Amino acid sequence: MAEPEIKRDIETQHGQQIASRRGRLNRFTLAVALLASTTSILLGYDIGVMSGAALYIKEYFKLTSIQQEILIGSLNVCSLIGSLASGKTSDWIGRRYTIILAAITFLIGALLMGLAPSFGFLMAGRVVAGIGVGYSLMIAPVYTAEISPAATRGLLGSFPEVFITFGILLGYVFNYILSDLPENINWRIMLGVAAIPSTIIILGVLVMPESPRWLVMKGRRVEAKEVLVKTSEGGVEEAEYRLQLLLASSTSSDENFQGQGVWKDLFLRPTPAVQRILIAAIGINFFMQASGNDAVIYYTPEVFRSAGIHKRKQLVLVTVIMGIFKTLFVLLSALYLDRFGRRPLLLLGASGMVVSLTGLGLGSIYLHRSVEKPVWAIALCVVAVCADVSFFSIGLGPITWVYSSEIFPMRLRAQGTSIAVSVNRLVSGAVSMSFLSIAEKITFAGVFFVLAGITTLGVVFLSVFA
Signal sequence: where (predicted)? Predict the structure, then answer.
């Protein structure tokens, strides 16, 4: 019997009864899920801090727009390396040590960026940090999904996006605080301070348990049950139920369960169910980044500079306001994700982004054609940007990570998620590295209308596959 069918039988016979009795949040599970998801703060901080630091780096190194795009987008492109390698790596050394590897890699990259004497040196730091980001984006959702009971998996699985958003806000705040320092120092501190959370993560992960799924995969069933007892509010009974689910998934061939032959099952001989899962996971990750959220955040100062806001501190302040809205809405999504479900919030968030991006395009085209830059048009753009990132934080932001990590069967989860995250990173890099160049050809307004069109296609895709 196929793995999903085995799991479905067990859940139908016994799992729903346990889930109804044990829906409370286990404190230990909450703690380790929070700690694992903290790795995502590294990407968020970089997105937030680079939006402001780029203003000073561009002046310090006398960068062209293309060099600025390469600088910003290189981290996302290079994260592709980490996300592709993360599936095999996490199956080999375990989920916990993969988190440590991600933090160490980003730590080295942060130090290289903060101490960079040249643009080339700065780019080297971006490459190293990008690899670390790739590892962290894949492993945090996978670890959280594997250690969380089904009843609270939506809430806990949304933590990576919560921490990405918090990291973005943190980056904005540091930009604002450090903006008055000399311009040859402030951007170095902005980038180098990322070494601090990396160090905290490395030390914190040492006290985390290993993923019970990985322990079962390695034949360490006693240790797996011990972890399941700690992470189950229902104690031994719920732990035994969850262990049976893991063991049921291992009844497929040992070759597949050990991580061998998984690529064949994903791409060469996928069942119709696996094929649909793969399309859904890759599609949602594609539209998450093709909607342009990362680029909008990275280049918000450039957008509002063209809109008539020229003082750097005011530009940075706008990003802080945007970060506050984004953080509030991602917390709301995390709290209500399990209550309302994935699909309704995905469709609400994506539809709201279409309206927001259209409004941003209308405001931008008016400002582009206006000499006086009226306050109402600038206000419309600010509101539209805040609405865009808020709707993203309701739907595509947090739910993409939850969806990607829980949709795959257990034996395909690590590699399947790494493929989906790789698409995510590749599209994010492509959008980030072309945003300014395209805007120079068709204006910022044109870019926002294009993003609105792409997101509309995303709504259609989600209505069919989500």
Answer: none
